[in-house]
Here is the input.
Amino acid sequence: MAKKALSPEERSERRMMILTPVVAVLLALIIGAIIIACLGKNPLEGYAAMIQGSLGDGAKLSKTLERACPLIFTGLCAAFAYKCGVFNLGGEGQFIMGGCATATCVLGLGLEGPAGLALGLLAGIVAGAIWGLLPGIMKITRGLNEMITTIMLNYVAMYFMEYIYKNVYSDNGLPKTIAIPQSARLPEVFGTHVGVILAIVLGIFIWYVIFRTSFGFKIRAVGMNPIASRVNGFPVRRLVLLAFILSGAIAGLGGAVELLGKTPYRLADGFGSGFGFDGVAIALIAQLNPIAAIFVAFFFGVLSTGGTMMQSVIGVPTAIVEIIRGLIIIFAVAGMAAVKLPKIKAYVAARQDAKAKKAEVNA
Amino acid sequence: MDFMTALPTILKAMTMGAVPILLAALGEVFSERAGLVNIGLEGVMAIGAFVGFAVGKMTGNLWLGLVVAMLAGVLINMLYAFCTVTLCADQVVTGMAINILAPAIALFGYNLFVGSNSANATGDQMASIAIPGLSSIPFIGNAFFNQTLLAYLAFILVPLVRYFFKHFRAGLSFRSVGENPHAAETLGIDVVRVKYLACIVCGALAAAGGAFLTLCYTPIYTDGIVMGRGFIALATVIFGRWSALGVLGASLLFGFFDGLNVALQAQFQSAPVMFFKMIPYIFTIVALIFFGSKHAGPKANGQPYFREQR
Here is the structure.
């Protein structure tokens, strides 16, 4: 594919798009450091512990990757939906329903071996897709705001999972399910489960679908301007519904992978908790680019696993990591909005003009 | 279950469940009337819940806790206001950012405040004030006339807000900003100022709703204590057609289903109670399906306002 020449304006816009999240991350880390310093601890020591605890050796790296894996799925879920103009906050519910379906399939049917694994993954995808389909139907038939409906469905899913692990497949009455049998678990490669590779491949695949296929083009067109798309003859409602279903399926697959791949291989309280919002954060920081989302999710994984180490070394609560995460997203949002402001755009353009003139004069 | 014997319990739980939603939803009415959809209510409520709890515990003065909580809510909502009004950022995205940042701050504060010091884990509660005479009315007496002062204040706020929007010049200018900001600007209304004011009111009220949870509902703060009430409040505003009275009715209805859940849990302890806990959330969706028209609400709701743009 021939690379099209970019005008200087486009190039500067693209540079801004990459620069904003990086600056946001740095600013957030600096503020995090200030907070740590205010508590009388050494921030550099803290960040060193964070890197040591998440990337220090092979075992830690694989733990970080496994932590990032579900976030890649929910991040892709949010990014894909938002590309089509759908603000899917239900990643968590879809993720949980995926996990529930997998548990039901594997434990309920007593499946073992690769058959259990394959059917479990499939069940997760289907359940996630259904949980994404519900708010989609509500949106296109009744015009309901998907933000509210998806959040409500998150809580329904959460309580449904409670039913699964307390009443249906409870492990001797304990509030957790029986573990998935050894043979039906995801195999390991390089110390991590295959799900991590699956997530990365899926991210690249989704990038290809969104940016290099006509289907992806339609999805993006609907996201940018639904009215123009309808005038063009695109089946807008069907595309929106598809975006709901596919993004739900991605999150559902994530839930299945998490259950089949990560210790303790059971559903219990807190399974998938917060992953939906993290996914939205990842998608926004990655500017809805699926490949960037993989890296942002990995960074979130580093923050999470490293945060525990930081807590044990310098004694700052792990919640500091969540503050840093929240700051990153607010800075990224503010930054992206700021560079689009007419005044700032005009300033950047004027500077570029001046630069170009200078170059002309020098020549 | 004998419904009539359970009714007083349900009604009591209804008013208790309705107050936090009502407060947050009234805040959202201000915000949306000025054209700002704030989905960050959930986060602001979390901040309010924690600050109210912590300050109330530290000083022993629950009202001080409430006031500081409201200030904290205003502060965090100013972040939202700056991003959406001054920087013209996407309101939904910014609200989402608040939803992620604010509970994190609350959790961090909680870890510092309680952490290993478990003496701080349980706070005090506001006492209920029974109105003599009225509180002995069968069924509704205990529910409506035996409450904390904060709950009474929340209900008194409803006619005030209604009056403000109907009869005050300022209330009308709020509405004009939400309907058509450019026209409002030509009439000499400072659109940006009105939007900031709306955010101040919204932050304060939503944080008060959050503070109600820790000061009157349960004496402890836990991560995720808001349990989607911020989003239910958003649904309440749609359901109540952006009017104070409608919001009151809607939040009482949501409270009723919350109360039903509590009563059913008490009645059938051996049943899978999680299905009862789903009731308020499922009801929210059902209510929106039947009454959540998309063709209502302020016209310029959710759109950024560029002063220079024509």
About this structure: Chain A has a mean pLDDT of 90.
